[in-house]
């Protein structure tokens, strides 16, 4: 009998021994909300997750209380504190008998091959890698060949970020699985936004996940790492499991206040259910591969078409928040048409001081004057905004380091009654290359909440209002300005 077969049999025994009867999420919702189940049949409950802490707690509590399935789809899964804790929570769920499926894009998986295999060895865990051309299971020379012979192919990435629990609750938005997306990093954190969905739209999320999971682009790690697989033993898997559980139990790795908040979540969730905004929600998504590829680095996608259509039909106002602002072909013209019709267009984006992506900023810098001349109002986020204290209010240890903040939220409000929250950046990569997802809803209350949040980020003290006569580029070092200038010399816009 092979080591891998023995490993599976041992883990099946562990799973059976650790499984326990628990109240399903559906039953929990029934017990805590009189009319939620009836509403979920044809409507969607929405709760906007503005802070990293509440988004982390929401994921953790749902993972701990799922009884049937957890489906996870991410662009980035780091092996840092948050990424490791997330892996431990999924493993714990699998040990309770929950079926766990994880689909991660190939580019930014920084877990080593052995760890991926040891996690996927559990009989209740499956891990697949999307479009594995340059990282997992790919040697150096094959990577070079792929880059030379398939430039569009390696640039087509899965930027989706979804987490689905028991097919009932789902979370989507800007956050990846890494410290900086949950206000946990000592040096640099993202001002981000997610949304918790309950009900009808989660069915569409599940359908989209199944389409990606079953596509030829999603490859099981066992197939990619077959040689490494033969060197694993049951003892290796047991040791890795013990390491993960020990890591999560160590207070040095998991802020006590956060664990305390997760434990108190059953008291918070009933209140959350009562404050859900029930709306007709569309879940926007692309197909695996984005488009046929016949247009090279162009081609658009389903999410692109839906969002362009929504913007084009604006009558009064368009409010956008995007960390990267490089308008695709025709974008400046579309915004100029809107402002000429009297539509007020405002965009909240990163400054050179707050951005984590100098190549992307260089693309924006080339367009900035033309965007302003089109009548668009631009607000560039400060690296140390006045809202800093609210963003890290519970993390004393993190707050002590006064980390820099940069925007990562991708949201839009149109005419004060339509709102989008998702993964789509206002750039050519999201428009043409990366698959994207998001929630599009028509609801005044949701639009009010998101408008208030974005407008807070645009206030003096949080952002600089940028005009034809003023921009805050001078606030950074000469070195950073020089790096940005050098990036402007290269024709990179189609892949930014």
What is the structure about, briefly put?
Helices cover 43% and strands 21% of the residues.
CATH class of the largest domain: Alpha Beta
CATH architecture of the largest domain: 2-Layer Sandwich
Counted beta strands: 19
How would you name the CATH homologous superfamily of the largest domain?
Endonuclease Chain A
Largest sheet: 9 strands, mixed
CATH topology heading of the largest domain: Endonuclease, Chain A
Overall form: globular
Distance between the termini: 50 Å
Which runs of at least 5 residues are low in confidence (pLDDT < 50)? 1-21
Strand content: 15-25%
- Rg over CA atoms, rounded to whole Å, is 23 Å
Regarding quaternary structure, what we see is single chain
Query: Helical proportion?
Result: 40-55%
Integer average pLDDT: 88
Give, in spatial order, the strands making up the sheet with the most strands.
9-4-3-2-5-6-8-1-10
Write structural notes for this entry.
With 496 residues, the chain is α+β, with helices and mostly antiparallel strands. It has two domains: 26-275, Endonuclease, Chain A, CATH 3.30.870; 282-495, 2-Layer Sandwich (Endonuclease, Chain A), CATH 3.30.870.10. It is 43% helix and 21% strand. The chain is built from 22 helices and 19 strands. The strands form three sheets. The protein has a nine-stranded mixed beta sheet, sandwiched between helices. Strands 11-18-17-16-12-13-14-19 form an eight-stranded mixed beta sheet, sandwiched between helices. α4 (52-65) crosses α13 (256-263) and α5 crosses α12. The termini are far apart. Mean pLDDT is 88; it is low at 1-21.
């Amino acid at each position: 009998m092979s080591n891998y077969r023995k490993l599976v049999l041992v883990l099946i025994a562990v799973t059976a021994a650790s499984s326990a009867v628990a109240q399903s999420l559906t039953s929990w919702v029934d017990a805590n909300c009189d009319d939620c189940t009836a509403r979920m049949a044809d409507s969607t409950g929405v709760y906007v997750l503005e802070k990293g802490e509440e988004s982390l707690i929401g994921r953790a509590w749902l993972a701990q209380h799922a009884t049937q399935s957890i489906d996870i789809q991410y662009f980035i899964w780091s092996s840092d504190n948050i990424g490791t804790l997330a892996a431990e929570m999924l493993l714990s769920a699998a040990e309770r008998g929950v079926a766990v499926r994880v689909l991660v894009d190939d580019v930014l998986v920084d877990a080593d091959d052995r760890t991926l295999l040891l996690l996927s060895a559990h009989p209740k865990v499956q891990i697949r890698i999307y479009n594995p051309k340059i990282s997992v299971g790919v040697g150096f020379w094959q990577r070079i060949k792929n880059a030379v012979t398939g430039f569009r192919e390696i640039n087509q990435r899965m930027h989706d970020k979804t987490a689905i629990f028991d097919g009932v609750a789902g979370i989507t938005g800007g956050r990846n699985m890494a410290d900086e997306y949950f206000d946990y990093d000592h040096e640099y954190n993202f001002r981000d936004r997610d949304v918790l969905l309950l009900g009808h739209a989660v069915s569409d999320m599940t359908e989209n996940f199944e389409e990606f999971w079953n596509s030829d682009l999603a490859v099981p790690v066992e197939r990619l790492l077959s040689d490494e697989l033969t060197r694993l033993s049951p003892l290796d898997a047991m040791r890795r499991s013990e390491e993960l559980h020990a890591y999560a139990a160590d207070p040095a790795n998991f802020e006590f206040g956060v664990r305390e908040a997760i434990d108190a979540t059953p008291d918070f969730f009933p209140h959350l259910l009562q404050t859900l905004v029930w709306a007709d929600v569309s879940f926007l998504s692309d197909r695996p591969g984005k488009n046929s590829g016949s247009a090279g680095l162009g081609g658009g996608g389903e999410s692109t078409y839906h969002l362009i259509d929504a913007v084009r039909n604006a009558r009064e106002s368009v409010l956008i928040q995007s960390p990267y602002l490089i308008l695709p072909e025709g974008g400046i013209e579309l915004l100029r048409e809107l402002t000429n019709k009297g539509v007020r267009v405002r965009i909240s984006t990163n400054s050179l001081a707050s951005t984590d992506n100098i190549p992307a900023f260089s693309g924006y810098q080339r367009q900035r004057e033309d965007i302003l001349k089109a009548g668009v109002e631009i607000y560039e986020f400060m690296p140390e905004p006045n809202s800093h204290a609210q963003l890290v209010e519970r993390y004393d240890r993190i707050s002590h380091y006064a980390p820099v903040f940069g925007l990562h939220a991708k949201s839009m409000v149109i005419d004060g009654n339509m709102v989008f929250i998702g993964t789509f950046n206002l750039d050519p990569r999201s428009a043409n290359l990366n698959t994207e997802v998001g929630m599009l809803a028509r609801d005044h209350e949701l639009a009010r909440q998101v408008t208030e949040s974005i407008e807070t980020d645009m206030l003096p003290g949080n952002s600089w209002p940028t005009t034809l006569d003023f921009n805050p580029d001078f606030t950074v070092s000469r070195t950073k300005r020089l790096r940005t200038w050098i990036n402007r010399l290269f024709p990179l816009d189609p892949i930014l």
